[in-house]
């Protein structure tokens, strides 16, 4: 039996309606493609992606910084890490690929952890970074939820046929 891809989704905890809906669509598409989604388990992008996963009957894992009661209502499996913000490393490391949507400094740290560990990072309306400020970003930019999911799955060696 082929194991389900695990994709981490990171992003701002204070998402605008546009960013929230992007995250929700990413969640629906990932669940439709049979992925397990890992995120930080709280609000904003994390809630949006978990909501989308839930709407498609998929599985989301929320790696919470502290108490399990911090989980948004759509997380399938909430896990209390007790690590505070250090849990960002666990979120970034858990997936085979990372999709970053929007974001503030916590998201930036997760992008750094993921890139440092060699994970492909797909950016959707998020930070643009490069190592020397001039070279192209080591991230892969996407302009739509569909493109972000397609790129993440391609980077894990899987096909995405737009099921979702």
UniProtKB/TrEMBL annotation:
GO terms for cellular component: cytosol. Gene3D superfamilies: 3.40.50.450. PANTHER family: CYTOKININ RIBOSIDE 5'-MONOPHOSPHATE PHOSPHORIBOHYDROLASE, LYSINE DECARBOXYLASE-LIKE PROTEIN. This is TIGR00725 family protein. It comes from Aminivibrio pyruvatiphilus.
């Amino acid at each position: 039996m082929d194991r389900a891809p695990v994709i981490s989704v990171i992003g701002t905890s204070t998402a605008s309606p546009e960013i929230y809906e992007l995250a929700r669509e990413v969640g629906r598409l990932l669940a439709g493609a049979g992925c397990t989604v890992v995120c930080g388990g709280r609000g904003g992008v994390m809630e949006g992606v978990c909501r989308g996963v839930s709407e498609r009957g998929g599985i989301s894992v929320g790696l919470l910084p502290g108490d399990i009661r911090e989980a948004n209502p759509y997380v399938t499996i909430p896990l209390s890490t007790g690590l505070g913000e250090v849990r960002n490393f666990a979120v970034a490391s858990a997936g085979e690929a990372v999709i970053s949507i929007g974001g503030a400094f916590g998201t930036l740290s997760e992008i750094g952890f993921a890139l440092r560990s060699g994970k492909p990072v797909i950016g959707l309306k998020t930070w643009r970074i490069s190592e020397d400020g001039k070279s192209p970003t080591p991230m892969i930019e996407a302009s739509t939820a569909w493109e972000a999911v397609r790129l993440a799955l391609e980077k894990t060696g899987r096909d995405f046929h737009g099921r979702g």
